[in-house]
Amino acid sequence: MSLASRVTEQLINLGISQSYLARQVGLSQAAVQKLCAGKSQSSKKIVEIAKILKVDVNWLLYGGETRKISPWDSRTPVDDDEVELSYFREVELAAGSGGRKIEFNDSRKLRFSRRTLDRMGIQVRNAACVTVSGNSMEPVMPNGSTVGVDTGNTTLIDGDIYALGHHGCLRVKIVYALPWGGIRLKSFNSSEWPDETYDSLDDIKILGRVFWYSALI
Q1: Alpha-carbon span 76 to 117, nearest angstrom
Q2: Residue 158's domain is classified under what CATH number?
Q3: pLDDT in tens, 106-155
Q4: 70 in a domain, yes or no?
Q5: Is residue 69's pLDDT more than 60?
Q6: Phi and psi angles of residue 174, each rounded to the nearest 5 degrees, phi first
Q7: CA 2, 71, 86, 147 torsion-angle sign
Q8: How many structural domains are present in the chain?
Q9: Residue 205: domain span
């Protein structure tokens, strides 16, 4: 059974339409139609699609016997195919300097399938998560969204989304490289957040490329 067949099967099982699925995950109906017709082999919204269809994302992508979403918490044992990813966080520096630094938050974890990361060419040790703050990336990534970051991939590709460290603040932006070595940062909510141009990367650290994102709405 293909991805298209599994998506279609669950639409029928739940009695929901392609247009409803499209609205719920923020895709065009045409994009969902292509997915159901087998013309698309995956989607950046595959995690959201799995949630709406009430199935496990790995079953949706690869098939097999496991399809229902299983609740878990910090006390649930980690399966052989699961890994726990830490979050980046901003930390206020001591002594009232007003400065910030970025470090890992090992007390907060998010679980991913090791097989999914392997399929995407992401090494587990290079994977981390970031929480999006503010409305600059709406409507695609609302305030509080979570993104997965491949810290092993810091090579800029125009139009891709990256997590950045900027004066100790965590930022998630669409990035474009400029000919003289600078960069342009773009937000989805460009009406409120105009493009930013920087002549160099002196004050900006590319933490990694965003490979996944999810939001509860």
Answers
A1: 21
A2: 2.10.109.10
A3: 777 888 888 888 888 899 999 999 888 889 988 888 888 888 899 999 99
A4: no
A5: no
A6: -80, 135
A7: positive
A8: 2
A9: 82-214
